[in-house]
Amino acid sequence: MKPSENAMLINNSMLIAPNHNVLSAWTGHVPFAAWLMQMQKPRIFVELGTHLGMSYFAFCQSAVEGKINTRCYAVDTWEGDDHAGFYNDRVFLDISSYNEQHFAGFSRLIRQRFDDAANEFSDGTIDLLHIDGFHTYEAVSHDFNTWKHKLSDRAVVIFHDINVRDAGFGVWRFWDEITQQYPNFQFDHYHGLGVLLVGPKQNEAMQALCNSSEDQSHFIRSLYSKLGEVPSLRYQLSQAAERIYHLESQISQLTAETVHLKEVTMNEVNRIRHEEDTRIQSIRNSTSWKLTAPLRKLIDLLKR
User: Fold this and answer.
1) Residue 118 to residues 87, 138, 148, 149, 158: CA-CA distances in angstroms?
2) What are the distances in angstroms from CA 213 to CA 1, 2, 10, 230?
3) pLDDT, tens digit, for every residue of 137-179?
4) What is the pTM of this model?
5) What is the DSSP string of the chain?
6) By the 8 A CB rule, do 159 and 171 touch?
7) Interatomic CA distance for residues 282 and 264, integer angstroms
């Protein structure tokens, strides 16, 4: 990879800081998603398995910032599974609302099972496919083979979680097999991301990525591993800022309550004083008080 291509990797990677502020196992790959969208410029991008929308909206935002003419589709049941956990409609309603506000012009959410959604696309039309559904070997193998005919002659397929080897995950196993057939590149950070060049007509940038030398590959992996921390740090900073805001609000509220309590206390003290002063003055003005004045003087003299 030439120095100019290295610089291109860095510059295009910095295009995106995700506005969809959700932390997930995909967050560390957001900078590469931006680069990939810029370099590949897919006419159709499809994601299988969207969940909270971290990866999907990163691709959508990169398309907006890079002025890429693309159509994006997120396919999911938004019901969950044994790996991601199960959840209610709140998740779908939230990302549907976000999608409508920011990307409605070119993005569509397809709430179907992957096999059924495949019928929505013509053969040979998808340039970029992200497979991130159920993570068993059988599931990821089935998803790839089901959607393979939908891929264009310049298609790129990316797989998440290729480095997870527990909890029934089998993406790593399928990745080891499929990389024997196609040019590829893999990232190891954030559970691993595999990049597979399935279509025979790849542009120079994609070919250069997958044909990089061992030193170049190490540089690229190290670069994106470090860049991948930026979205996570941005999320943590936003969360810290939000906590500070709430704490400042609480302090402001407590200060107001303290001032109010002081006012109430002073008002009560003044009321009691006034009542006591009135009662004392009433006693002093009474006939009995006046008649007993000589006796009080005598008592004072005896005390002396």
Assistant:
1) 24, 18, 10, 10, 17
2) 8, 11, 18, 26
3) 999 999 999 999 999 999 999 999 998 988 789 999 999 999 9
4) 0.73
5) --HHHHHHHHHHHTT---SS----TTGGGHHHHHHHHHHH--SEEEEE--TT-HHHHHHHHHHHHTT---EEEEE--SSEETTTEE--THHHHHHHHHHHHHTTTTEEEE-S-HHHHGGGS-TT-EEEEEE-S--SHHHHHHHHHHHGGGEEEEEEEEEE-TT--STT--HHHHHHHHTTTS-EEEE-STT-EEEEE-SS---HHHHHHHT--HHHHHHHHHHHHHHTHHHHHHHHHHHHHHHHHHHHHHHHHHHHHHHHHHHHHHHHHHHHHHHHHHHHHHHHTSHHHHHTHHHHHHHHHHH-
6) yes
7) 27
Summarize pLDDT for 89-100 with one digit per residue, the tens: 888 999 999 999
